[in-house]
Amino acid sequence: MTDQSGTIEKIVKDVTTGARFEAYATQPERNVAQAYAIQDGVVAALMSSGARSEIAGWKIAANSQQLLERFKLDEPASGRVFADQRHDGPATLNAADYTEFAFEPEIAAIMKSTLAPSDAPLQPDEVLAAVERFVPAMELLDMRLTDMPSTHIPDAIAQNISNVGAVLGGPGITPEELDTANIRTTLTIGGKVEHDVTGAAPQSPLDAVAWLASHLAARGLTLEAGQIVLCGTHSPIWFHRGTGEIEVEMSGLGKVSVTLI
Question: Where do the H-state alpha helices sit in 111-178?
């Protein structure tokens, strides 16, 4: 067994059992390319074992200038969203299924057509026609007690950046209607407003989709019709213990909600 295959096996076990995050760090520290190679292996193993289903979409992480600098990245990071963990809101989830539940309010792109890798690198105006709608969404995370401030980000990339799904709301808007500067995002937990911010998208969602399609093409992967793209969080990561109702409203786009039982 190679070191990489051993790491993949350990991560698959940790992810499926909800074990505390373990970086399985290397010396010298693994780089981003090595992290994606492990992520690819973990994803393949999860799917082949039946622990996860096919790929329903992608998440983009660290796509604000502040987070790029914090994690010492030259570009954002990406991870998969599995179809068995993609939910249409309002969704009901079991709180006991998560070791350390967290979420992020985001705009999600729903892809209308496939962006061929041969067309990369892609510009925002080239992807506009490929996006069906932008909708309000929540990225679901299980942080598994990760000490994120001290984590070497490639170690998180290797483990799919803590993603455990997404909940999509609506009704959403067309790409031509999107004006992120004026979108007000309101987060309500248990009937109490916890976060209220305007213009908080970390980058233009069209820029995000264009980057992701080009990034995937460079890795020999494809952003496909019907898949979703989580375009970056509108708030700091939110941790939630126990049960309760969580709702995110984005002006013009609609609402998305999750009830933990």
Answer: 124-127, 153-158
Termini Cα distance of the chain: 41
Which residues in 46-78 are b (16+ Cβ under 10 Å) and which e?
bbeeeebeebbbbbbbbbbeebbeebebeebbb
* Pairing between β-strand 228-233 and β-strand 55-61 as defined by DSSP bridges: parallel
In contact, 257 and 189? CB cutoff 8 Å: no
Contact 145, 99 (CB under 8 A): yes
Query: Which residues sit opposite 139 in a β-bridge?
Result: 104, 166
pLDDT band at residue 217 under the 50/70/90 scheme = very high
Structure tokens at 64: 């604000």
22-37 average pLDDT score: 96
- Spatial neighbors of 150 by CB under 8 A, at least 6 apart, are none
C-alpha–C-alpha distance, residues 237 and 106, integer Å:
11
> What is the average per-residue pLDDT within 189-195?
97
Q: What is the pLDDT of residues 112-143, one digit of tens each?
A: 999 989 989 999 999 999 999 999 999 999 99
Tokens linked to 19: 């074990």
Q: How many domains does the chain have?
A: 1
What integer pLDDT is reported at residue 1 of this predicted model? 45
In this predicted structure, what is the pLDDT of residue 163? 98
Let me know: does 257 contact 248? Beta carbons within 8 Å: yes
- The Cα 236–Cα 23 span in angstroms is 22
- Residue 100: Cβ within 10 Å count: 17
